[in-house]
Every structure is written in structure tokens, then in C-alpha cells.
Amino acid sequence: MSTLATIAQQGLELAQDVVPEGAQDVEAAGSAGFAYGLAAIGPGIGIGYLVGQAVQAMARQPESAGQVQTTMFLGIAFTEALALIGFVVFILLKFV
Amino acid sequence: MTTDAGANPMLMRMEGPSPAQQVAADIVKRGLWVAPLLMLAGAAIWGSDGALSVGYALALVLANFWLAAALIAWSSRISLALVMAATLFGFIVRLALIFLAVWLVKDAGWVDFVALGITIIVSHLGLLFWEMRYVSASLAFPGLKPTT
Question: What is the mean pLDDT of residues B107-128?
Fold first, then answer.
């Protein structure tokens, strides 16, 4: 068991020597940006579906368009909170 | 709402005051009320840098709400179909603007990213839940005008 641990430790040290520090920073920035992009996809789909249904509702029932638009705006803002959470995770990974 | 175009969302448009802008104005008003309290809390937790970061994050959140509502109001006066396009492209543009706003201050000495990030999430969700309470009451009891 201790032999395995020694080998693993040597492997880690070797990997740290091979990958320069600057490259690690670039990889971290790329991963953070990729995660932010992934976090924006879900809310994008959600907002598209929400607004599509709201526009359909407003076209079918013009007399209730005001109520529909109010709930649509709140729905958009709630869905967008997911993207904002992804953005905050991104800035914490990137800058802290 | 103009209904002479039948049920074609390409030709229908809304007239009069925009409900989205009224909701956004309420949210911005409440955000300005609680801004001093949040900045004091930020100063107590993170110091003066935290207070400035909390203020900056709150300004970003309120500007984001206002811009979203302005886009919906502008597009709904032209066509309901444009609401769809303006909302989706507006979502991307607003995320890019928030990123740009944070990117511009990333090297500033006063910025505290933990305070900034936490305030963005907490104030966005908090203001939304606060507003939702009154919107729900208005929708359930249309004759009732709840006090803010």
C-alpha cells in the first residue's frame, strides 16, 4: 500500500513539473468559461419556451395580455437567475 | 392590445403602458430602498471594499431588470413576434453586458468578488420574490391594490 502511495506521489510531482504554471492558468480559465457557457444553455432554452408560450397566449387571448406579460417577465427573471448563478461561479473560479 | 390583425402574432402589438416596465419600476424602487441596508451589511462583513462591491452588484442587478423590461416594452409595441426575438437576444446581450461590467472593474482595488457574486444572486432572487408577492396578490384579487 505504501509503495502505491509513493508511486502516486511521485506521479503527481512529475505531472506538476511537466505542466507549466501558466498553462494551468489557461486551462482553468478555459474550464471556467466552458462552465459559464454550459450554465447559460439551460436558461436560454427555458426562456425561449416561456416566451413562446406567452406570445401564443397573448395572441389567443389579447384581453389578458397584460397579466400574461407580467407573469412572463417574472418567469424570465427567475429563469435568468440560473444563468446568473453560473456567472457568479465563473467569476469566483476565474478571479478569486 | 391591437386585435384587428386577428390571431397573427407577427402583426399583433400591445399599446399603452407596459406591465413589464411597471413591474421593473417596482423592483428598482424596492432595490433603491434596500441599497443602504445591503451596503451597510456588506461593510460589516467585508469592510469598505465589500460595501462598494455590494453597491456595484446591486446597480448591475437593477440595470439588468430595467433593460429587460425596456426591451420587452419596446418590442411589444412593434410586434409580439419581435418580443420573442428581443427577449432571446436580449438575454445574451444582457449576460454579455454583465460580464463586461465585471471585466472592466476586475483590476480595481476596491472590488471584492465574493461580495459581488453573493450580492448579485441574493439581490436578484430577493427582489424577485418580494415583487412576486405583490404580483400574486394583484392577480388573485384584481380589485385589491396591495401597499408596497
Answer: 93
Residues ≥6 apart with Cβ < 8 Å to B81: A55, B9, B10
* Interchain CB contact of A70 with B (< 8 Å): yes
Burial class (CB in 10 A: 0-12, 13-18, 19+), A18: exposed
ipTM of the complex: 0.84
- Residue from B39, B25, B37 nearest B131 by CA: B25
As a whole number of angstroms, the distance between CA A69 and CA B81 comes to 13
Which tens digits make up the pLDDT trace of A48-61?
999 999 999 988 88
DSSP single-letter state for residue B16: S
Q: Does B136 touch chain A (CB under 8 A)?
A: no
3-state secondary structure B67-88: HHHHHHHHHHCCCHHHHHHHHH
Distance (Å) from the C-alpha of residue A17 to the closest C-alpha of chain B?
30
**Residue from A69, A76, A89 whose CB has the most chain B CBs within 10 Å, to mutate:** A69
Q: Do B139 and A71 touch (CB under 8 A)?
A: yes
Domain borders along chain B are 18-131
Q: Chain B: nearest CA to A28, how far in angstroms?
A: 17
